[in-house]
Target: DNA-3-methyladenine glycosylase II
Amino acid sequence: MNDLLFELPLPELFDWKACLDYMARSPLECLYRTDGEGVTRLLRADSGALLIRLTAPEQERLRVELLEGKRPGDAGLEELARYIRDWFDLDRDLRPFYKLAADDLLLGPLTERFRGLRIVGIPDLFEALCWAILGQQVNLAFAYKLKARLAEGYGESVHWLGNRYHLFPLPERLLGAPEEELCALQLSRSKARTITAVAGLIADGALSREELLALGSPEEAEARLTAVKGIGPWTAQYVRMRCLRDASSFPIGDVGLHNAVKSVLQMDRKPSLPELRELFAGWRGWEAYATFYLWRVLY
Model:
């Protein structure tokens, strides 16, 4: 019998199935498994690795159960709850975004189609940065394969009911990885170097999510990230969106965004950057959510 850890209240404009459908978009995902009712994932806690399952049998509450591992203490449970709220952006009031989208010819149909979808985040900065770095200039399927190779080669895992569940590696594990070893996983040399550089900064405490969130503005956080060799504007904007929870992040150079806008507007070509800026001008402050809903058309 599963051990109920706690339940979390769900906000207005949240739909569990919409989030699960998004998370199920690729069979290559290695860090969690979804089914029609919930998601199972291995997470770190003060008591060690925990295999947890999230379901929402009632629309108003998210149920968090322990499948494998030692039950955390109160502080560990609080940290786990914070992680889950962050993972599904549960603390955000989406009513202003839906109000803005209601009369918008492009966003309106998307918010109806994907009503209740939240930006499914990556609360851990190292994981978020690595995922963005791995995704630079490659297709999504190959990025998933690279992530799986890193997780399988350098992360902890548990075996449960015929499936293996992985934790994304700690920065200390990749800090010591030889460059040739990472390249053997089919990472480019530049990606291998950027990931080990980021691992060093985070392991040494020279870069942290807390530090980035404490800066005066999202633009300062982006500047801090792009100061690291190998991290450009797209990578930084992606991390702002998925990890730092900046709803105004606008990854204008994203190829997927260009393809989504082309598809939704039935254009015979991809939009230009000036056209994208004009399109997004009316969505100021919610660019990240507009982008996420447009991505959802493709994935």
